[in-house]
Amino acid sequence: MTIESTDGVVLVVEQPSDEVASALGRSLDGLRIESVTDYSTLGSRTGTVDCVVVGPGETSVSTVVEAVRPLDEVPVVVFRPSTAERPTAALDAGASDVVPADGADAVRLLAHRVEATVDRRHCERERAEATNLLDALFERVPLHLYVKDGEGRHLRVSHAYTSDPSKYIGKTDFDLHESEESARTYADDRYVVQENEPILYKREPVVQNDRARFSVDDLQRHYANAMSDDAPTVDRDLFEDGYDGWVLTSKVPWYDSDGEVAGLIGVTVDVSRQEAYRSRLERQNRRLEEFASVVSHDLRNPLNVATGYLELVRETGSLDYLDRVADAHERIDELIDDILSLARGGNDIDDPADVPLDALVRDAWKTVRTRSATLKVVGPLGSVRADETRLRELLENLFRNSVEHGSTNNRTESGDSVEHGARPADGHSAPDDAQDGPESDRPSTEDGEHVVVRVGRLDDREGFYVADDGPGIPEAERERVFEQGVTTSPYGTGFGLAIVRRIAEAHGWSVRIVDADTDAGGARFEFCGVRDVSASTDRTT
User: Fold this and answer.
1) Three-class SS of residue 424?
2) For residue 152, what is the domain's CATH number?
3) Residue 4 lies in a domain
4) Considering the entire predicted model, what is its pTM?
5) Are residues 356 and 500 in the same domain?
6) How far is Cα 34 from Cα 30, in angstroms, rounded to an integer?
7) Do residues 105 and 181 both lie within one domain?
8) Are 50 and 9 in contact (CB under 8 A)?
């Protein structure tokens, strides 16, 4: 057994240390042997020391052992005559080994013992380094690492995703969480062990009870003290409300000293961020497909109409057809506005704020060509947590929808509500002094029948509604009307309600259509899950 290379040394102390050091130097290849006459300086020595040999001398072994104690438990071999130092006394004093200096072939025996001691010291150091490295992997690396035995029971679990790994030791995943996902995980563990086959990069949902353990958020909290202020953090805007976390899992067999499968080693990585990116890209691709479909089909129809009537103007010289051309161009303009809304808006809300809903409803009403319609704000609406621009767009589309599908009867409602005047046919707002009076006697105009649009808060949950007293929407059609391009009005583009749903979902709200609570019937759009709806202290009159 020969040590080929080492950064450490063997120190020989006491007299005659030079003689013993020279003898060891001739017998041990690859080890540096140094003679030290002043043992009291051993504790301040720097660098690696593999062994200390105590040669013949008067100093007690316990004194030398105490002097070398700061050197990280360096082994001490005593090389003294048996008449001067009894082996048992030397061992009791803290020596690692004793070689009688007066025995046959004593120096050769000493060299063999020192070499074995140094060899053992190196093995212990390598094991300690391997253990420290393994500890660092399980305690610091931001991955969920685990080792399981042949029955799928945890033997070791990383600290990155749990503050108490001990609660997993000796338990299978199914023992920890009784669920279908855990049962499948346990089945995978058994497959790896029994078939001696790895499972690589398996995409799995996070078990509900494990979500915090596997989430990127929890991992960032775990390393919060070690992260700088400018360290990258998870983009919460990527995740939709109620998203399920996703992980990639790999498991490989591990073997005992006989080469038999003893269990498995696994690593699970949170890929929720990547899944969120993928979902966002899929949504964007769908919007691009919608955009291409509309550009290639919906815009082509009014463009063909305009082109046809323009040809008639050229052929007949009659300018009457230009009105039809203008109508077609107006239709194209409406379609472009809706297409851009769908393409740009998507499902992302960047900077929500507390928005006073009462004021926003009135402002949105003023921008819509409402013909002879009337707006009633039922009670105070308070404030909602929303993107003001996109919420205004939602309201404008709902108001247009109500007017385009207005009722066939001239009627309004009474009640404790705030009323706002209808917009004239030319699209300009009525004078301010005409917008606060009662509307029950307002006649219908030649532009269309009178329709009442009401906006109020939901009574039984957080949210608000927009209702009208028009013909309503049959229950079988209430989901379909939110699809792109679906409209029953010759004036509609078929995008309005699709935009409404998309904006609602971007805020994390749900929208549903029910029958309006009026004698005249109509449709009522209810928006639930609206955040921070607070009642206003001022009632508008």
Assistant:
1) coil
2) 3.30.450.20
3) no
4) 0.45
5) yes
6) 13
7) no
8) yes
CA angle in degrees (0–180, nearest 5) for 361-364-365: 85
Same domain, 154 and 113: no
Q: Are residues 363 and 459 in the same domain?
A: yes
Answer yes or no: do 112 and 168 share one domain.
no
Q: How many domains does the chain have?
A: 4
Judging by DSSP bridges, how do beta strands 76-80 and 246-255 pair with one another?
unpaired
Whether residue 499 lies inside any domain: the answer is: yes
Instruction: Measure the CA dihedral 85/88/92/95, to 10°.
Output: 60
**Are residues 216 and 288 both part of a single domain?**
no
SS (H, E, C) 161-222: CCCCHHHHECCCHHHHCCCHHHHHHHHHHHHHHHHCCCEEEEEEECCHHHHHHHCHHHHHHH
Q: Residue 496 CA to chain centroid, in angstroms?
A: 32
Exposed e or buried b per residue across 299-338, where buried means at least 16 C-beta atoms within 10 angstroms of its C-beta:
eeebeebbeebeeeeeeeeeeebeebbeebeebbebbeeb
Sheet holding 463-468, edge to edge: 418-420, 374-378, 452-457, 463-468, 523-528, 510-515
311 and 395 belong to one structural domain: no
H or E element: which one contains 287?
Answer: helix 272-293
Listing DSSP states for 452-506 in one string gives: EEEEEE-SSSSEEEEEE-SS---GGGTTGGGSTT--SSTT--S-HHHHHHHHHHH
Cis peptide before 142 (omega within 30 of 0): no
Torsion angle of the four alpha carbons 269, 270, 276, 278, in this order, in degrees rounded to the nearest 10? 10
Tokens coding 230: 């400018």
Is position 47 within any domain?
yes
Give the pLDDT of the chain (541 residues) as one tens digit per residue. 333 344 568 888 876 666 777 878 887 877 888 888 777 777 777 677 888 998 888 888 888 888 888 877 889 999 988 888 888 888 998 999 999 988 888 888 988 899 898 888 888 888 888 888 888 788 777 778 899 999 999 999 887 767 788 888 999 988 988 888 888 889 999 999 999 999 999 888 776 555 555 555 555 555 555 545 554 444 444 444 444 578 888 999 999 988 999 999 999 887 877 877 787 788 777 767 766 665 665 677 678 888 888 999 999 988 988 988 898 888 778 777 766 765 665 556 667 889 999 999 998 888 776 667 889 999 888 899 888 878 888 898 888 888 877 643 333 333 333 333 333 333 333 333 333 333 333 333 344 468 899 999 998 788 999 998 888 888 888 888 887 656 555 555 567 788 888 888 888 899 999 888 766 678 899 999 887 656 443 433 3
- Domain encompassing residue 201: 141-225+234-270
CATH number of the structural domain spanning residue 38? 3.40.50.2300
How buried is 517 (Cβ within 10 angstroms: 0-12 exposed, 13-18 middle, 19+ buried)? exposed
The answer on 366 and 311 residing in a single domain is no
